Amino acid sequence: MGTRLGKQTVRLDSKPVIQSWASIVGAKEGNGPLGRYFDEIVQDEYFGEESFEKAESKFLRETLSKVLMKGNVSPGDIQYIFAGDLLNQCIAANFGLRESEIPFFGLYGACSTMAESLILGSLMVEGGFAERCVCITSSHFCSAEKQFRFPLEFGNQRPPTAQWTVTGAGGVMVGKFGDGPRIVHVTTGKIVDMGINDANDMGSAMAPAACDTITAHFRETGLPLNYYELIVTGDLGMHGKNLCLQLLEENGIAIKEFYDDCGVMIYDRQKQRTDCGGSGCACSAVVLAGYILEKMSRRELNRVLFVGTGALHSPISVQQGESVPAIAHAVGIEMV
Amino acid sequence: MEQKRTKEEYKKWAQEQAPKSPKLKNCVMAFVTGGVICTIGQFILRALLNAGLPKNDASSLTTLFMIFLGAFLTALNVYDEIGRIGGAGAAIPVTGFANSIVSPAMEYKREGYVMGVGARMFLIAGPVLVYGIISSIIAGIIYYLVT
Predict the structure, then answer these.
(1) What is the rounded CA–CA span in Å between residue A14 and residue A43?
(2) Residue A76: Cβ within 10 Å count
(3) Is there a contact between A278 and A164 (Cβ–Cβ < 8 Å)?
(4) DSSP category for residue A167
(5) Helix (H, G, I), strand (E, B) or coil at A179
(6) Is A170 helix (H, G, I), strand (E, B) or coil?
(7) A215 chain-B contacts, CB cut-off 8 A
(8) Do B107 and A158 touch (CB under 8 A)?
């Protein structure tokens, strides 16, 4: 039934299994350094639909069917689906999954949604309320720019701390039985606000949250710092990654050799002109469901701490001069 | 949060380490881009004057042409690239103003012609128009009182 180790962390004693995973990305992500790990690369930013919002829904829908297909199950075998995205009222998930006929929880954790859904899905399995859950998230560069920033064709300059929203969707199926990577620890983040109010500098806003959650994870689990072969944050980008490492070191957590960030990994920042790197719900989702779980299933990685990071602001809160609160959730995934 | 810094200290510390804009390069590129756009305008103005148009008509036609050029290049997905390279040099000439109106109009076409294109068209240019008109009224009143 799981053991509570501290204020934020729960150990999942049944170790729910990640039975299958899938990722679909856009052309830019496909051309990036991790391109060959993704299941499908879609060249058309509209994905054959008439709007970016519909395209994003399709990314989710197609990823769900890939997850089910790879897990060799039908929608009827799934008890819950946890899904989210960046659009207002989570319309990408709501519309993309409306025909799925699976009991649905819509989540908003900004770019941390993949880790959030993974925590909830695995707790549901651990608690015995579900045999299988799907956890899935999406984002789309064009729909996110439209909602959070400027029209695509507007000729402005991106500040060097800006990040590039990943187009795509990633999902996993968590279940009771089977072989595969297992979820062993989950650490739920607290909202951390260090007063950053520049919406173009998410790295600075989210780094303290990531540091807070990683520190809590090690403190509450008592695991040695070199326990994980890879500790990966969601989308701090180059700048946030650098800040996070320094903050962790100040807390006595030196993990430089095995720490990386999905936002830094997914693009070639120089060649692809993405400034600080990738961001968005799909950033951590596709790196997890494409690269990390693939590496784990080949036993090239055995223990990974996956830390989704999210900036919990809205265009309105930024215009009203509010600071950017941030959150990070950690999931310890292990091959056993 | 186990933080050794106050919010102000953290903000300062984070900003010090943030990647910086290449200010000199941006200034040079803005100068060159703005210069090229204005040279094109000057070239058209000269051509129209040489064709025998009166000065007022020629300058209005030049502005019209430059607005068309900005809108046209926006529709061809070119002006955002010019803006990325040229920054303020591409934003301040009238071509940039055209870009700021055409780009949201393109973006919001899916939301319909009334609440989409019509309502969102001035998303970026709106404040420029509002404060431009207000300042021109104030300038007009001052001019009237002085002369």
Answers:
(1) 41
(2) 8
(3) yes
(4) P
(5) coil
(6) strand
(7) 2
(8) no
Distance from CA of A210 to the nearest CA of B (A): 10
Residue A246, both tokens? 């320094």
Residue A134 and residue A64 in contact, taking contact as beta carbons nearer than 8 Å: yes
Q: Give the whole-angstrom CA distance, residue A243 versus residue A226.
A: 20
Please state, in angstroms and rounded to a whole number, the distance separating the CA atoms of residues A307 and A331. Answer: 6
ipTM above 0.85, yes or no: yes
Nearest alpha-carbon partner for A125 in A169, A190, A81, A171: A81
Residue A135 tokens, joined = 């956890």
Distance from CA of A67 to the nearest CA of B (A): 31
SS3 A1: coil
- Taking the C-alpha atoms of residue A196 and residue A174, their distance in angstroms, rounded to an integer, is 36
**Rounded to whole angstroms, how far apart are CA atoms A237 and A134?**
27
Smallest CA–CA distance, residue A172 to chain B, in Å, is 31
Q: Could you tell me which chain B residue has the CA closest to the CA of A159? A: B21
The tokens for A164 are 């590039």
- The token duo for A9 is 């962390």
Rounded distance between C-alpha atoms, residue B33 and residue B119, angstroms:
31
DSSP track, A149-211? S--TT---PPPTT--EEPPEEEEEEEESSSSS-EEEEEEPPPPB------TT-HHHHHHHHHH
Note the pTM of the prediction, 2 decimals.
0.93
**Which of B4, B5, B7, B11 should be substituted to probe chain A, the one whose Cβ sees the most A Cβ atoms within 10 Å?**
B11
Identify from B9, B102, B103, B109 which residue to disrupt to test chain A contact, counting A C-beta atoms within 10 A and taking the largest count.
B103
Answer yes or no: is pLDDT of B1 > 60.
Answer: no
Q: Is B76 in the A-facing interface, judged by CB distances under 8 Å? A: no
Residues A196 and B14 sit within 8 Å (Cβ to Cβ): yes
Number of other residues whose CB lies within 10 A of the CB of residue B59 = 16
| Parallel, antiparallel or unpaired: strands A259-261 and A326-334 | unpaired
pLDDT tens column, B69-103: 999 999 999 999 999 999 999 999 999 999 999 99
Polymer length of chain A: 336
For A268-304, write each residue's pLDDT tens digit: 988 999 999 999 999 999 999 999 999 999 999 999 9
- Give start and end residues of each alpha helix (H) in chain A: 27-30, 52-70, 91-96, 113-126, 141-148, 202-221, 237-250, 262-265, 269-272, 281-286, 293-297, 315-319
Give, as one character, the DSSP assignment of residue A35.
Answer: G
**Which of A51, A147, A148, A153 to mutate: most B Cβ within 10 Å?**
A153
CA–CA dist A211, B13 (Å, integer): 15
